[in-house]
Specification:
heterodimer, A: mainly beta, Porin, 8-stranded antiparallel beta barrel, B: 9-stranded mixed sheet, 2 helices
Chain lengths: 187, 208
Amino acid sequence: MLFGVSSFAQGGGIWNFDWNIGISVGDQSDFISEPSFRGFNIEGRGFVTDNMTVGGMAGWQTFYQSFGQVTEEFGNTGVITGYKRRYLNVVPLMANWHYYFMPGVVMPYLGFGLGTYYIESRNMMGIYYTQGDAWHFGVAPEVGVAIPFGAGTAGVNVNVKYNMAAKTKDEQAYGWLGVGIGFSYIF
Amino acid sequence: MLDGCYPQDSISTSETDIVMTAYDDSVVFTSLKTYFMSDTVYPVRDDTSDHSLIENNNLIIQTIAENMAAYGYERVFDGAEETPDIKIASAAIQTTNVSVGWWYPYYGGWGWGWGWYKSSRETDYYYGGYPGYYYGGYWGMPYYSTYTTGTILIEMANPLDYRVIDGDTVVPIYWAGAINGVLTGSDASRITKGINQAFEQSPQIRTN
């Protein structure tokens, strides 16, 4: 608790730089079930009270799955055979709010993000693909913990976020559990 | 918007191959027996003055003939007394600008469309004097390709079974197969494999 109260007084804030693992849930697992290890985000959180921050985040996550050679039906009587892969490229842009519990050396927090996910979904067969893209309305509840390195201004940030990208007119809903591990810079 | 965000997608040449087929489900294929097929795979090239045979012409014709025989069709030739029930026409599309579209089942409202009629000669460039084709399908999702490939197109139709739609005389396609990608590279076994797959995934057109 060496830096806790003094550093986190109003006016201060935290930058987080996280590597993210994505685990598909719900409708998304019908599209791609394999987890993604390609993701990162940058977050800025500013303290508005001793315990609360407001801020914003931006990131990127790519999901990929190969299905090998498949034969599928399409339309009424169509059949297509090819080497099938799918991609999701996701860019979240969110405003967020966090509440820090400050019991001591570790600081658990709860958070909530509200914003948009830009998602490109790509279905590939051989060299051909169809692509959907949309800005999805999104919410992202989050739990995490910040572990400062002693009295320094840096720390480790670990969080789990449930990313929910709502269905749009043309695009399905997506959702994944994001596990973020990264560095915090506290100012 | 996110070009370049597609890691891992390096596939081998044969993995680029696509085989698409569709048939007209109003046709009673078991009522068909004989067919005529030209010995020439019609070449569709950028250089329209080049009418030379494509490299694997005979292999393509032979592979189609073997599959047709396996499905119970009897090939008749020029000068035969009886009129064949159907004609098989094959084409090899090697132009850079003509592409074959496909529409993915994940999306609603899509289907097989004859999207390769992008040529300005779309009403007259086809082989055998077919007056043009009609397919009552969808014109669905756009497709994209960043490569140049070749496509073997196999179409089954009966020129005597024509209809007039909006003033155009059109011949409905009974069955079509498109084998995309196989004209690139040097492995001719991809051609036979692709044609075999087109028939294999179309058991509905069997006549035996």
